[in-house]
Amino acid sequence: MSFKQISIFLGIGLLVCAHWLTFYGSIKLGNSASITLACLGSASFFSAILEPLLNKAPFRPIEIFLGMLVLGGILLIYYATPTQSTEGVNYSMAILSGVVSAFLAALFTVLNKKNIHKTETLTLSALEMLSGAIVLTILVPFIVDSNTALWPKFDPAIGNYDLVWIVLLVVVCTNLTFYLGAHALRELSAFTANLTVNLEPIYGIVLGAIIFHENQQLNIWFYLGASLILLTVFIQTFLNYRSRKKEEALELVVRE
Q1: Where do runs of H (alpha helix) occur along 89-219?
Q2: 80-93: per-residue pLDDT in tens?
Q3: Which residues make Cβ contacts (< 8 Å) with residue 223, sequence separation at least 6?
């Protein structure tokens, strides 16, 4: 690979790193995984705008419309945030940080789609994960609380398995899934790839309710917003299925 191409992937890795910081920052600000994951659903809206701009392709009105539906869902979720004030919790900033995280996710996905065929998927993933890891390693001492340990603890005697959870987050939930997501971009548009991310609010809500009992803090507006986001996923899936069937039928006619 040329130095220029390596630099491009290292640069995209910095966007991924910024996505991580704003994503987990949103959870920290709002003390809610469900709210952050719901905001991540706006990635499809940003992708519908960024992909045509960066790839010099025509805009698809249906994708912009579906993106607007997602934004409508996020607006409903905003009205679902608890009204009582809680010390150390800022729901408005949490939603803002979550939307910025979604924008960054859409941006690095579009850029990866543009460059995915210039190298192997494993090479792309390794370079981007490496640059993100290096920058985070440099930033961590400056952004963590002074009382926070810089290395995760592991002490089964007192039930502390932080190191196990961090390794699981790094290997399975980050590196493996990032590689699979990048590999899928060889076949999918960036918009479709980002739209599948919109499923995260759904299982995020379920896990948040089971593990953190977040369902006790949210009202009907939240579930209406989440349902609207989920609806866009099914609409896009149906449209892709119908488009693929038409293409297959046309190919069959041409062969005959």
Answers
A1: 91-115, 121-143, 162-170, 177-184, 190-197, 200-212
A2: 766 665 777 888 89
A3: 80, 205
